[in-house]
Amino acid sequence: MFQIRAPIDHDTMALLPPPASPCSLSSFIPPPSLALKSTTSLALPKRRRSLCAASWQELVGVVVFSAVPFTAVKAIANSALGESLQRRLEERKKAAVENSSRFKALAQNARNRSLWYGEERPQWLGPIPYDYPEYLTGELPGDYGFDVVGLSKDPVAFQRYFNFEILHARWAMLAAFGALVPEILDLLGAFHFVEPVWWRVGYSKLKGDTLDYLGIPGLHVAGSQGVIVIAICQVLLMVGPEYARYCGIEALEPLGIYLPGDINYPGGELFDPLNLSRDPVAFEELKVKEIKNGRLAMVAWLGFYSQAALTGKGPVQNLLEHISDPLHNNLLSIINLM
Fold first, then answer.
1. pLDDT at 252
2. What is the pLDDT, as a whole number, of residue 238?
3. CA–CA distance from 130 to each of 11, 91, 126, 304 (Å)?
4. How many CB atoms lie within 10 A of CB 332?
5. From CA 165, how far away is CA 117, in angstroms rounded?
6. Is 251 exposed, middle or buried (0-12, 13-18, 19+ CB in 10 A)?
7. What are phi and psi of 202, to 5 degrees?
8. Tell me, what's the pLDDT at 42?
9. What does the pLDDT read at residue 217?
10. Which of the chain's termini has less CB crowding within 10 Å, N or C?
11. Within the chain, how many helices (H) and strands (E) appear?
12. For position 128, what pLDDT does the model report?
């Protein structure tokens, strides 16, 4: 075939790189200027997108929105409205404290009569004889006499460990709900998520994907931001709850809110809107059910981690595959394939 080439003057020829042999390595390497241009135009925008995908106006909006709860509470507490709410609380606080004291006495009586507390409570080995620790008296919910390394010998440390356990148990239950529901909704076709599997969500953010709530396009607050921005928003959103937990049940009194319970079970209309604690006997049993389900959720997360590492799939998909063919989709078959 014939090729038609436009004439090139001497000035243009001076700017071109020298010709290379067809078999030389330099014929396959682009000029440095082109390589730099392609690298900066392709790699850097992707990196910038993964860290902060929005404009600075959107970034400021997300950060301000995340800081609103804590700043609003502080602003109300230091305003004239906060002073009015505190005066109203002082007027009815004496009666509220008396009611709280009576309820705590009834709850203690219910605990003494309950089969889940005290010396006659179920033990972790059941009928098997065992020398259970004397310092575990069954005073707290979920105490089955299990302490093989003696972490609860110190009463102060025991109470602190219980506070940590119930806190992590509640987080585990919420996290399990958040890990299972999106995958179920996506498998049912009710909603389409960018990434329904829990462990891949972080990876999708590292890639720079935008995550919409319930898969609805445009329905996101921080879902279009990068990982660093989302981490900042999480910190700002958790300032208020962690500060309140540190201060105890008195943290909301500047807003005129009295909590009749303790740090683990605050109660009141804010933390018990369904009034589940109105019956002391049922309330003490609910405490045991909560810590048992929370421990189960923490163990379930250990399974979630293991399944993700071994199969690369979500827990719901693993369950469906196991139900469809239990003999070939189980832990032993997965280990044999590794």
1. 86
2. 83
3. 96, 54, 9, 33
4. 9
5. 18
6. buried
7. -60, -40
8. 40
9. 77
10. N
11. 11, 0
12. 92
Q: Are 248 and 265 in contact (CB under 8 A)?
A: no
Q: How far is CA 333 from the centre of its chain?
A: 31
Q: Is 314 left (phi over 0), alpha (psi -120 to 50) or beta?
A: beta
* Look-up of token digits 């810590």: 291
Q: Which residues contact 33 (CB under 8 A, 6 or more apart)?
A: none
CA 190 to chain centre: 23
Q: Is the dihedral of CA 314, 319, 324, 326 positive or negative?
A: positive
pLDDT of residue 20: 44
Question: H or E segment at 83?
Answer: helix 80-113
Tell me if 136 sits within 8 A of 147, measured CB to CB: yes
Whether 238 contacts 250, CB under 8 Å: no
pLDDT of amino acid 309: 92
Q: Which of these, 279, 282, 281, 286, lies nearest to 264 by C-alpha position?
A: 286
> What pLDDT does 158 receive?
95
CA–centroid distance for 169 within its chain: 12
Given a cut of 70, the residues of the chain with pLDDT beneath it are 1-58, 221-224, 338
> How far is the C-alpha of 267 from the C-alpha of 277, rounded, in Å?
8
Task: Give the closest residue to 285 by CA, choosing from 118, 61, 114.
Answer: 114
